[in-house]
Structure formats: structure tokens, C-alpha cells
Amino acid sequence: MTERLRDLDESALLARIFPVYAATARDPREVPVGPGDDAAVVGAPGGTVVATTDGMVRGRDWRDDWSSGHDVGVKVAAQNVADVAAMGARPTALLVSLVAGPAVAVEWAVDLARGIAQVAGEAGASVVGGDLSSAPEGVLVVTVTALGDLGGRAPVLRSGARPGDVVAVCGSLGRSGGGLALYLAGERPVDPGADAAARTAEAASLMAAHRAPRPPWEAGPVAADAGATALVDVSDGLVTDLGRVARASGVAIELDGAVLRARYADGPLSDCLGPDEALRQVLAGGEEHSLVGCFPAGTDVAGIPGEPWHAIGVVEPVGAAGPVVRVDGEVPDVRGWDHFAPS
Ligand SMILES: Nc1ncnc2c1ncn2[C@@H]1O[C@H](COP(=O)(O)OP(=O)(O)OP(=O)(O)O)[C@@H](O)[C@H]1O
Ligand SMILES: Cc1ncc(C[n+]2csc(CCOP(=O)(O)O)c2C)c(N)n1
Ligand SMILES: [Mg+2]
């Protein structure tokens, strides 16, 4: 019989979760006090703390028939780590709040912890604590808070883009949104055996990217060191998130449609979604958590070490139309994600 949260008490649940997070424990000089006390104590070698939080809600941010607890753990941790990276920092510690109805399976909660621990381990952060709260039947909310360290760098803000800067992407575009579109169209991932059709394998890979993204968070500090003037992760869609950079910086941003089609939309994404929907996902698909940066004119973005960066556009002076994002001179007719006005 499935063991449910209502079958044990808080300390028994924590006794199942703590060992999972113990695997992420860092050197005591980095995390002098981990989980178990009233609060954790985390080092800040660079002298400041980068702090961000982002949560996921069952039914709004994932569906149980699509995603496992592990998938949700990977995604909620990854989106927080990407926000730390988008400041030019590396993550040091994560805190996890779990608000759950009594019928949630204990194994789901432990699997969630495993997913979070996986990302924490890969990103070099410790899970240092969190919170448990019960909720009415059916409610399930997971919120992660991430702390990060700039290592003495200046934070890379959304407001630093300047006319002439090169706009470049590190990581994929449109894949998570493409996977979501396939799920919403009723497709289910098929385990791609050796003889599976290429489209079957690609569709499964897009759906996996939607469930459990692996954004290139290591590239955040690297971009800062390469002189990035502005940096953001793609959470709500490329055009929406670059629109935030444009507004904060008081600039316009011009993207190259041919480059976006050739590098990100053509090929597997188009094969799965068709060319128009593929380009729409590249421009507006959310939850990719790839990094988009602006770099001073003349920066050889292809020469930035580590995960590759690809130029997709340029920053221009703001014009009569205001701080807009254009593709080939036109403001594209696409809408990114908005929690209170979902597209
Ligand atoms: N409820 C809130 N109270 C205070 N500040 C908030 C609240 N919600 C968001 N913010 C702040 O507003 C800014 C924008 O938040 P937002 O969640 O859009 O950031 P983001 O980087 O786009 O994250 P996401 O990856 O969730 O899209 C952030 O600085 C955030 O800390
Ligand atoms: C069931 C279901 N329906 C829709 C979506 C799509 N979705 C949810 S949040 C978000 C943007 C990022 O949010 P945030 O800004 O909070 O990080 C997107 C694109 C989903 N994942 N699951
Ligand atoms: Mg962000």
C-alpha cells in the first residue's frame, strides 16, 4: 500500500529527506551549519549574498501525469540556480519549502528531494534547510530559495545593456516550450528504442527538456568574467525576458530571424512542431532557463570558454517605439508566459 504523508509525522518525514540532502553537504568552511537547527549558516566568500526564490504549483507548473517528483525537483532547483547564474554568480545553498496535502505519497516527497539534490550536487550547492507545511487535499507547492556567491565580481544586471552590444545565447531555445506543446497536444513520450523513428526520439527529448531542464548555469560567472553588460535567464520566453533587459537598460534589441531559425528552430524542433510553431517556441517558449547576455561591441562571443555562446542580435539605441525587442525590424506577434494572463 502506498505510504502517504498522513501516515507519518514531520520528524519521520525529515528523517527520510535529510539523508538525501546530506549527499550535497559542502565543506564546513562553506556551510558551517546545515539542516536541523533553526536556520543554516552559509559562507559568503565574496562578501555579498545573491538571493532568489521560485516555486512550482501542481496543476499550474507541472502535471502529475507528465512529471515525477524527481522531475519537479530537478526543475525547481534548476530554475533557481539559473537565476543565480543570471546575476553572474555561482550557487552556494538551496532551501526547500514543501506545502503538501495529506494524500501525497512519501515516496514522491523523497523523489523530489533526490531531484533537488541532483541539481544541487551538479551545481556545487548544499541543500541547507527548508520548511514543511500541510495543505488542503490536492494542494502541492514546492518553493526553492537559492543563495549564491559572486566571488568578488560585480553583479550582472538587466540594466547594463548599451547600444552596440552583441546579444548572445548560451544553451537551447524553444525546447521546453516545444515539449510542453507536445504534452498539451496529447502526445506522450515514447521510450526511443534503437529503431525508433527520429521524430519519436526527438519528441521524447523535447518532453524531457520540459520536465527536467539542464540549463548551462556554469556559464553565468563565465559570462560575467567575459564582460557581460546584462544577463538574464529565459524563464518566460526570449522576447519577454529580453524585453525586461531592454526596458531596464533603456535600449532596443534587434534579433536576427535567420540566425534564430537556422540555429534553434530548423531541424528537430521544426520536425516535431512544424516551422512556424518551432520559431514561435524559440521566441516565446518559457522555462528554458538558458542564459541570454549582452556583451560589449567587438566581443568574440564564440571565444568565451566553456559552454558555447552564439550571437543572435545587437543592442540599438531606443527609438520612437520605446525599449522594444524586434526580429528583423518588426516587433514579433508572440506572447511569453505570464502567470496571471496565461497565453
Ligand atoms: N511577491 C514578491 N514580493 C517581492 N518581490 C517579488 C515578488 N515576486 C517577484 N519579486 C521580484 O520581482 C523581480 C522579478 O521577478 P520574476 O519572478 O519575474 O523574476 P525572474 O528572474 O523573471 O524569475 P522567473 O525565473 O520566476 O521568471 C525579482 O527581483 C523578484 O525578486
Ligand atoms: C501544467 C503546466 N502548464 C503550463 C506550464 C507552462 N509554464 C508554467 S510557469 C512558466 C514560466 C516560468 O514560470 P516562473 O516565472 O514562475 O519561473 C511556464 C511556461 C507548465 N509548466 N505546466
Ligand atoms: Mg530569471
TrEMBL record:
InterPro entries: PurM-like_C_dom, PurM-like_C_sf, PurM-like_N, PurM-like_N_sf, ThiL-like
Protein keywords: ATP-binding, Kinase, Magnesium, Metal-binding, Nucleotide-binding, Thiamine biosynthesis, Transferase
Example of a GO MF term: magnesium ion binding
EC class: transferase
Residues annotated as binding Mg(2+) 2: 54, 83
Residues that bind Mg(2+) 3: 38, 83, 233
Amino acids binding Mg(2+) 5: 236
Pathway note: Cofactor biosynthesis; thiamine diphosphate biosynthesis; thiamine diphosphate from thiamine phosphate: step 1/1
Keyword Magnesium: yes
Gene3D superfamilies, alphabetized: PurM-like C-terminal domain, PurM-like, N-terminal domain
Biological process annotations from GO: thiamine biosynthetic process; thiamine diphosphate biosynthetic process
Residues reported to bind Mg(2+) 1: 53-54, 131
Catalytic activity of the protein: thiamine phosphate + ATP = thiamine diphosphate + ADP
Binding-site residues for Mg(2+) 4, renumbered to this chain: 38, 52, 83
Annotated binding of substrate, by residue: 61, 287, 337
Similarity-based family: Belongs to the thiamine-monophosphate kinase family.
PANTHER family per UniProt: THIAMINE-MONOPHOSPHATE KINASE
Note: Reaction mechanism of ThiL seems to utilize a direct, inline transfer of the gamma-phosphate of ATP to TMP rather than a phosphorylated enzyme intermediate.
Full protein name: Thiamine-monophosphate kinase
Originating species: Phycicoccus duodecadis
Gene designation: thiL
